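Input sequence (367 aa), recorded before submission:
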Amino acid sequence: MSARRWGWCGGFLIVSTALWQQGGWGVTPPASRAAPSVATRSEWLAPRGAGSCAATACHGSVVSTAGDILRNEHATWISKDRHAEAYQTLFSERSRSIAQNLNGGRLPAHKDSRCLACHSTPTLATSGSEALRQDGVGCESCHGPSQKWIGLHTTRDWDSIPPMDKERLYGMVPLSDLARRAETCAGCHVGSPATDGIPRRDVDHDLIAAGHPRLTFEFSAYQATMPAHWVEKGVNAAGDFSVRSWAIGQAASARAALALLEDRANRAAKANGKAESAPWPEFSEYGCFSCHHDLRDEPWRRNAQRSNASLGVPKWGTWYYPLLPVLASADRADMNDLAKILQRLGDSLNRPEVDPKAASDQAGAVG
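Predicted structure, token format:
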């Protein structure tokens, strides 16, 4: 067998194995995790800011050290990582233009909670000091608010606590788990319904029309371009890391997109046709070039069968879902079920009139 052919076969085997090991989708449903008490959650939502990590003896050294803890994590983030600039972006000319288009400039981007939910630590979007927001997407945006774990995680006892317990009891997100890492990234880079004191994160068609870039997230590619301030270890240090991160990222991104679709459809159904409160269908769910294209005759657009769409109807789900059915195989019932669910959902959404209640029920069926 040629090396090229072996690469394809081996890649498919690795993807299938990764999805199997991660429970099919590669993402543990939040409902299956042990939920902390309301009081515990309220303590989680009190970020201390990236400065809490910046001591030279902690993560603020200008040089790295050998081992799993590099000591220069904060220095790398603040000097090289664009996440550190996320809040300052809200003062740019483009952000001012978006605010002007959205609300006549009455609410500037750096005071708009739907902007702050992704351009700063999400839990600071509706309350918190501007000083902490200036961190942008800081340490606690991904690792979780540190109120309960910042002291304990410097002790030897911390190493003996299982990662899932660190999240359940103290609120530190176990980012070494690729599924949780991808899920955390997707919260902003795909979107998320409102939850745990964090407002809805939703770059909808209104926001795109105002000038915001469309979100086209692909976890493995984004991760590969980041200036890493961490060391991959354990299973993540294996040679199949790239294909595992791609497969798990596809699943996590699609799950996040479906959760957002379910939320959008629910709000539209409750709005009972009042378009100003919940536009439906949400056009950001569809391929932009279904509508935004030149009007000259283009032969490929005349072939409806080739494009797998009805003439005059925008194509739904062109970014997050197409490759998931490809990952289905005859011996994987859950992936075949997923392909069928997506097919039914596409049939419901690829039509001139879309029932939001049906769309919500079908999106929620993925579970």
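Checked by second reader. The chain is about 45% helix and 0% strand.
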